[in-house]
Predict the 3D structure of the following.
Amino acid sequence: MKRTYWIVLFLIIIGVLFSACGNAGQVDATETPEKVNSMATIQALGAQTTLVPPTPMGGVAVEGPDDYVGIIKQAWNIIDTEYVRDNFNGADWPAIYDEYIVLAEDVTSSEELWNLLGEMVGELDDSHSRHVPPDRMTAEFGIDTAAAGEARAASGIEIWPGPSREDEFLTVWNVCAQSVAAQAGITRGDIITAIDGNPVVKEGDDFKREDRTAVIFGTAGDQVTLTVWQGPNQDPVDITLTLDGVGGCPYRYHEVVSEDPRIGYIRVPDFDGDSAFSIFESIKALEEEQPLEGLIVDVRHNPGGNSDDSVAIFTEGIVGTVGKLREGEQRTIFRIRGPVEWNETTPVVVLTDGSSHSAADYFPAAMKELGRATIVGMNSAGNTEGITGWSLADGTLIRLAVMTMALNDGTVLEGIGVTPDVIVPLGTWGLKVEPFDLQIQAGIDTLLEMIQ
């Protein structure tokens, strides 16, 4: 392949590299990306960007994209020096070097190299770390954005970033008011059992990205047939949707859920650049008539961003540390800096679930560690590893976990998440309960006990 091609590819890659985990404490964040129509949550995982020079990397100079052995050495060295854990999750990393160098000597094409790189990174058994070949760039870094000014073709169904890990089914989390899904009678809490006749199957803790994408987005005029189960006493029905523009999507939202005592509720769908401002503005709106006696902050199904400023609305102090878990490595203090914008006394409940990722792990962790909130719901995702994208000499990427969070007592939340003080499973039909779903109602009940 010609050198010019790889230079162009690298310049394209510069525009899409990012850190998937919301930065905590002293980690710098970049400018928040522009929202795409009303479905901005889809972009929240790409809110930070980290750029690492391509060559030489890890002390390895590579002759070019056809130097397959050199690229394997390059990738191995990046992982050897930069991976978050020096035990490599039990993998014998020196032995893996010997094995993959021999395998690389037999590689005859880029496609074979990419398969080998994927297998080598897979030896870490770390869901955050992976090799990204060219044909995976779009899937890795989100759905293609629509051209400027164009309405995104969508169903109006929100399931991103996916059902909570404790959920058995692919559940509709929200529906945009002006959408084909709403017109067809699909509502929050409905269950999607099949897409175009193909059963939706859970794999591990999540559902296929392709299935989740097919439910949400497509090309204008495309049709998708969803088999939808809408209640315990109903049979699933097929509903065909013609994808079109959407509006009236339930994004940031607040309301008074109890008048006496006065309890407010704020939905935080992501921790993007203006999240702290929006939360504080919501509090002021809720207190326009009289002060709140309790507040629920809902970070369920929140894919992350940066939550430090949002925590600082309520409290300040040292939460723990962030950095590598390697001998001799210094870790950065994770400190929430004041001054506190609201107050430190009004009781607060934070709602979490298995789709509270990244900064939505950090937010409840900080609020709980600093004694500022009671956590209600289910364990957060435990997605606390910070990921950096490293460009290899052939223009492909390694996305590698390079840091993680630990609380003041040394507890690492990765893979575990924040454990609620009050555990409340939604169950199959918990979102259908009215006037508030089971977890919101549990948050109200918790505050009532604290206030009275």
Observations:
- Confidence is low (pLDDT under 50) at residues 1-58, 143-149.
- The chain has three domains: 3-140, 157-242, 253-384+403-451.
- The two ends are 72 Å apart (CA to CA).
